[in-house]
Amino acid sequence: MTTGAFKPYSLRKEHKHKIIYYCIPAIIKAAFTANEEEREKGTEESLDALQILEDELKQKFFGGESIGLVDIAAGFIAFWLPAIEEAVGLKLLVSQKFPKLSKWSEEYTNHPVVKESLPQRERVVGFFKARYASIIASK
């Protein structure tokens, strides 16, 4: 269990609907922090949050068989997280550890309505690579 402001186990009981709001900053910390200790903390927090989402995913999408509000809010994890992982060499959304979330990510990003509104992946990865390089260079 992590310490500090992120408390995944209390979220699990009382406020798990807010997990996406905790997950995104944790992922950013894991990916775009030059300090190794902070990066490890962000990675641990991210994995905790992803596990909660994995446990909550019961059907094809969070709301059932069609995309709902939670899926849209979690869309960061489906599209942006894999691009960040590729850009910075980080692996969080591993299919062996998060099989339901990985399948959901594929289903979500390949849905025709979602797919047509996503930016070009190569450009996004390039942006994140440049951002990461500037962070490492300023270290």
UniProtKB/TrEMBL annotation:
InterPro entries: Glutathione-S-Trfase_C-like (IPR010987), Glutathione-S-Trfase_C_sf (IPR036282), GST_C (IPR004046), GST_C_Tau (IPR045074), Omega/Tau-like (IPR045073). Pfam families: GST_C. It comes from Phaseolus vulgaris. GO terms for molecular function: glutathione transferase activity. One of its GO terms (biological process) is glutathione metabolic process. It comes from the Eukaryota. One of its GO terms (cellular component) is cytoplasm. Residues 1-127 form the GST C-terminal domain. SUPFAM superfamilies: GST C-terminal domain-like (SSF47616). This is GST C-terminal domain-containing protein. PROSITE patterns: GST_CTER (PS50405).
